[in-house]
Each structure stands twice: as C-alpha cells, then as structure tokens.
Amino acid sequence: MKKSHQHILQERQLTYEFVSDNSTMFSVESMCKTLDISSSAYYEWKKDIPSQRKIAWEKDTRLVLKEYNESKCRYGSHKITAVLNQNGVSTSRNRVARIMKRNGIKSCICKSYKPQTTRSDHGKRVALNHLNREFKTNEPCKVWVSDLTYVPTEHGWLYLTAIMDLFDHSIVGWSMSEDMTAENTVMKAWEMAKRNRKPKSERLFHSDQGVRYVAEELKKRI
Cβ distance 148 to 212 under 8 Å? Predict the structure, then answer.
C-alpha cells in the first residue's frame, strides 16, 4: 500500500525527534546514515524548532499580560510576580520587569483614596491630655492607649481598632469592622481589653479626639 504524504511527514517527524533525543549518545551523522535520512534536512528541522528558552519566555509573557490586564493595568512587576508565585508559577521580579518593558507596559498608579479615620471637627466636648507623653508605667492596666486605622482589601476598606497596655506594650483589645461606628470599633475593642486583662482599679484611657472616641455610648461604657 502506498503511504500518504501525511503519513510520510509523521514518520519523518518521529525520526527527527529520535535523532534529537539521542544526539548526546550517538553522532547525528551516524544516526542519519543508519536511518537513511539527510543530515542537512535534520539540521533544517532542528533550526525551525523554537528553543525551550523561547517557549518558556512566551509562556511567561502570556501569564504576565493576563495578570496585568486582569488588574486593569494597576499591577507592577512586584505584584505580578507575587501573584504568579502564589499560583505555582516560578519566576522572578527581574524577569517579569523585563517582560513588561519589552511589551511596553507599566503599572498605572492612581492616586489612592485614603479614608479619614480621625474627625475632630465634631463639636463635642473632649477630655484634657492627662497622659502628656508619659508613655511608661510600672503597673499593668494603669494606662491604655488606643487608635483606629484602615486596611485596604480587595473587597473594600476594613477598619482596625487597637488598645495597648503601656505596661508591656501588649495589644489587649482589638476589633475589625466594615464601618467606623463607635459600637463596632472602639467599644468592641474596649470589651475585649476588659475580658483579657480584667482590670480591678481605675486606669487612664488615652486616644485622639476623633468622633468615635468622644461618642456618648463609649463614655457611658467607660
């Protein structure tokens, strides 16, 4: 039966691959002669095969462009590298940076929005500064200090409130909330601090003059 052209090409491809796989053990010329193929034809086939380095580069380029586009052009080389490594792709920041430079892309950094966590224009009565920068105390539960900050996440802002005991600088109470109400921020942290330290005497509670810290509900609770 006469072989089809497609079948002949497939056999030749397999033969070339056999020669390539065994080229470290035998000479290419001797294998080509034994298998009755042209060595020059084999080298032409070899030249047309993309190198493993080129294949890897093209693969990494596709992955980098994918993460860049999915981030709406916000991610730079540091962030893209971190995401790829988390997804099991082993690459370096320098390699990602080279890929981005070669493709003419860079992080589009927008001015980030920062929520205002301290509002002191509330018009409410505030306490005097009794702490006066005396940040050392020799007894636990004598001085607690507190502050509120924000944490950006993929799903929006979270607000972290912490209370520290200046005796050992331990965080004795904290809360994480999606809003900045006194009930969900300072008061939850206050209740945790009381449970953890179980104070038995009066103590000084120091904070900024933000609206959460002068809330009437918090004053009653304290």
Answer: yes
Beta-sheet pairing, 170-177 with 156-165: antiparallel
List pLDDT tens digits, range 16-51: 888 888 888 899 999 999 988 888 888 888 877 666
Give this prediction's pTM: 0.44
Distance CA 201, CA 166 (A): 15
Spatial CB neighbours of 8, under 8 Å, sequence gap ≥ 6: none
Pair 211, 124: CB distance under 8 Å: yes
At residue 49's C-alpha, the angle toward residues 58 and 85, to 5°, is: 25
Contact by Cβ (8 Å): 222, 194 = no
Question: What number of other Cβ atoms are within 10 A of residue 87's Cβ?
Answer: 9
The label of the residue with tokens 């799903």 reads: 155
Task: Assess contact for 185 and 159: CB atoms under 8 A.
Answer: yes
Compute the distance between CA of residue 48 and CA of residue 158 in angstroms, rounded to an integer.
55
DSSP state of 22: T
Token pair recorded at residue 109: 């950094």
Q: Judge whether 159 and 178 are in contact, CB under 8 Å.
A: yes
Other C-beta atoms closer than 10 Å to the C-beta of 76 total: 18
Q: Hey, what are 138's tokens? A: 């020799």
